[in-house]
Amino acid sequence: MSRSLLRTLFELRAPSTPRPAAQFKLPVRSLSTTPLRRDSPTVSESPTISAQSATAPSAIPTNPTEAASLVAESRSPTPQAPEALYPRIPQQVNQPTSASQATIAQLLPLLRTQPAHYLTVHIWGRPYLVTAGDQIRLPFKMPCVVPGDVLRLDRASTLGSRDFTLKGSPYVDERLFECRATILGTETEPMRIKIKTKRRQRRNKHVRSKHHFTILRISEVKINGPEAVGL
């Protein structure tokens, strides 16, 4: 016998049982064909809208160019004011004792008369030993500054000359000195590529780095007398 005859015999012997019809549960809204009226009690009323939102005009732009400009404005970061990036933090200067006040009142005029004053200023927590005319290369890019800006450096832990040195605890009173720095510009180093590998792996990772620097020049170093702090 051929396979087709065997197949027909097996189909005749098997009892033919009708399969149950598939039952699909349709949503209630799709079954109803008559539209519902708004005064019908079955329709849920929409929530009330405030008067401010009802009177406000629609803020959705219809022109595609206006929509693109709105998206660009929302993605662009808002510039921050210099006061927000560089907040004025009061100094934590310990009150000097009567003996130290007498010493400052006696020796500060001598320190002031000697030339070539130096300072140990702190810029963002980093100490720098500077004199007038020195250039500082900060290892970061200072935001919200342009070449030509003048900064007042009011954090100094050491103030001295050739024979005298005044140390603060932790900082010297900012009324005793004036130190100003001028922004010269920013610099960038050449692109550095470092290849990182892992053991028993054939892939290599190339890490690129290009640091930015800010260049300052100390334009003024001035020592005030003891009368600046009322001594």
UniProtKB/TrEMBL annotation:
One Pfam family here: Ribosomal_L21p
InterPro entries with a match to the protein in the record: bL21-like (IPR028909), bL21-like_sf (IPR036164)
Region (Disordered): 26-62
Amino acid composition bias (Polar residues), ranges on this chain: 30-62
Family, per entry: Belongs to the bacterial ribosomal protein bL21 family.
PANTHER family for the chain: 50S RIBOSOMAL PROTEIN L21, LARGE RIBOSOMAL SUBUNIT PROTEIN BL21M
Descriptive protein name: Large ribosomal subunit protein bL21m
Organism: Apiospora phragmitis
Lineage summary: Eukaryota, Fungi, Dikarya, Ascomycota, Pezizomycotina
